[in-house]
Amino acid sequence: MTTVAVPIRTNRRKIARRILRNPLAITGLVVLVLAIVLAVFANVLAPHEPTQTQLDQAFAPPGTAGHLLGTDDLGRDVLSRIMFGLRASLHVGLLAVATSLVIGVPLGLMAGYFRAIDALISRLTDLVLAFPFLILAVGLAAIRGASLGNAAIAIGIAQIPGVIRIVRSETLRLKSLDFVAAAIVEGASDAWVLGRHILPNAASVIIVQATVAIPAAILGEAVLSFLGLGIQPPAPSLGTMLSDAQQFAARAPWAAVMPGLAIMLLTLAFNIVGDSLRDALDPKASRR
Amino acid sequence: MSRYLLHRLWQSAVTLILATIVVFAGVRALPGDPALALAGEDRDPESLRAIREQYGLDDSWLVQFWQFVSHAARGDLGQSIRTGEPVNGMIAGALPVTIELSVLAILVAGVIGVGAGVIAAVRRGRPAEWAANALALLGLSVPNFWLGLMAILYLSVALGLFPASGFVPFFTNPVANLHHLVLPAMILGTGLAAVIMRQTRSSMLDALSADYIRTAEAKGLSPRAVIGRHALRNSLIVVVTIVGLQLGALISGAVVTERIFALPGFGKLTVDAVFQRDYPVIQAVVLVTATAYIVINLLVDLLYSVIDPRIRVRGES
């Protein structure tokens, strides 16, 4: 249909090379892969069942034989619970971000492309923004009950405005470029221009947004579960582990320290990878 | 200026109306019969009918919506199902705690964020920049409720530096009040400080390579004067912008922070209401938060246009 080159695809290799040259980015990637492996294969790798209680082994300190990171007040193995907790965190993180992208990307594309509905979509964005994520989650938990799925939906909805804004401004920018104008002049349909020319070129911006949104969603899940509005006990979640551990933190500090460190390492790894991805995609930003 | 003002006012009003409709519809979407919830243990059909009558539950949705809006506009937010206390009173008692906590957090975050951001930009490529960047990355990644737990565990319980929980009203004892709020404010401000630092650094780097800075330097102004005068002005815009953008995160963070430090604020009210299924309180809390968010954002935008005249021009054109 049109022969105008799509610019971004040519330099994927260059981007990969830029990331791999950065030692911090590699560290982040390694931690991330490790966390994903631990989470995905938790049922094989975990030394104990995450919900198995052994009251005679309660409050075992880290390093105890069979309990590398110690046990909690019910004698449950902290390491095993962290592995399964990581699985829940990643699950919510991906589900939330997928929700926000599925709804936010089409709306962002339309807001940037069709002037007529831009104002309407902006009002909708403002409306969602008026409900801070926790208030949204509180409302959703009151209406539909507290669960992993509802926590993910609440976080996802709260992230939609960010996606819309970023995709909208990228669409506005791309729309003014010659190759899009050429396609329109050639008689391409709006759907073709959006799907074939604008979306592929906005992909890098969307990917960067997703890498920033996943750690935010993971922190959001931890907060909701900590407050009792997310994953319900006894299912292991890093947030519920922390809220349980709060009661006996003075007696068994490791039960509070370890899950928090796990959340921090996971989000840190995501943030580092996201930062280096953004720098690699936008060399101007990294030189600043 | 006035056209921009009117435009923003109109936008805010539309958002506020939409938000009210969402809250109203959301409460109607709650599971169960509200009359049953209001009746509590008393399931006698006669008293259920009385409750339906009293709360207008048999009226059409339009009438109910009008009742809801007109009562809310007069400041009547209903009564708690659990305690029978008027919700306005509960909110009036809780709000000052949260406002003080948030203002302190913004102050802490502004001072730390702007300071670290300026240092990172000026000391580019040196260890100080690395340290500031690393701190910002950590600040963005650390779950602040966990940081709060650690602070209680190690600073309050082990070292006894700060009270672990509780609250003293400012007018009862200002010193004790601040002593109770310093730690929560620092915890709540962590994420905000990280965002402010990153933004300050990047806008400072932009400014430092701008022509007007070169002119100022060429005039013979000392680096301290150049950075001080121009950086401060820019930083102010950065802080105001970010507070506007991060307001939602700040409100959410305040809820969690209050929970950890057992502060009797808005967040505690919210979480308690959800667990007790106290629907009038949930409805009021959500409405008040949305209204506060819309109004503060409007104020931030107006303040922004006062500090940065370019915004005003753009709004008028």
UniProtKB/TrEMBL annotation, chain A:
Sorted keywords for this record are:
Cell membrane, Membrane, Transmembrane, Transmembrane helix, Transport
What GO cellular component is one of the record's annotations?
A: plasma membrane
Give the classification, highest ranks: Bacteria, Bacillati, Actinomycetota, Actinomycetes, Propionibacteriales
Instruction: Write down what this protein is called.
Output: ABC transporter permease
Boundaries of every ABC transmembrane type-1 domain copy: 86-274
Name the PROSITE patterns on file. Answer: ABC_TM1
Q: Name one Pfam family in it.
A: OppC_N
Give the main localization category. Answer: membrane
GO BP annotation list: transmembrane transport
Give the Gene3D superfamilies listed for this entry: MetI-like (1.10.3720.10)
Q: How does the protein associate with the membrane?
A: Multi-pass membrane protein
Localization recorded for this chain is: Cell membrane
Q: Where are the transmembrane segments?
A: 23-46, 88-112, 124-143, 149-167, 205-231, 252-273
Q: Which family does it belong to?
A: Belongs to the binding-protein-dependent transport system permease family.
* Signal sequence bounds: none
Organism encoding this protein: Kribbella albertanoniae
Automatic annotation (TrEMBL), chain B:
Supply one GO molecular-function term. dipeptide transmembrane transporter activity
The superkingdom listed in its UniProt entry is: Bacteria
Transmembrane portions of the chain:
101-122, 134-157, 177-197, 236-261, 281-304
Its membrane topology is listed as: Multi-pass membrane protein
GO (cellular component) term, any one: plasma membrane
Q: Which CDD domains match?
A: TM_PBP2 (cd06261)
Tell whether Flavoprotein is among the UniProt keywords: no
Q: Does the keyword Transmembrane apply?
A: yes
Instruction: Please give the SUPFAM superfamilies that the UniProt record associates with this protein.
Output: MetI-like
Q: Which InterPro entries match?
A: BPD_transp_1_N, MetI-like, MetI-like_sf
Compartments in which it is found: Cell membrane
Q: Which UniProt keywords apply?
A: Cell membrane, Membrane, Transmembrane, Transmembrane helix, Transport
Which protein family is it in? Belongs to the binding-protein-dependent transport system permease family.
- Which protein is depicted? ABC transporter permease
Query: In which organism is this protein found?
Result: Kribbella albertanoniae
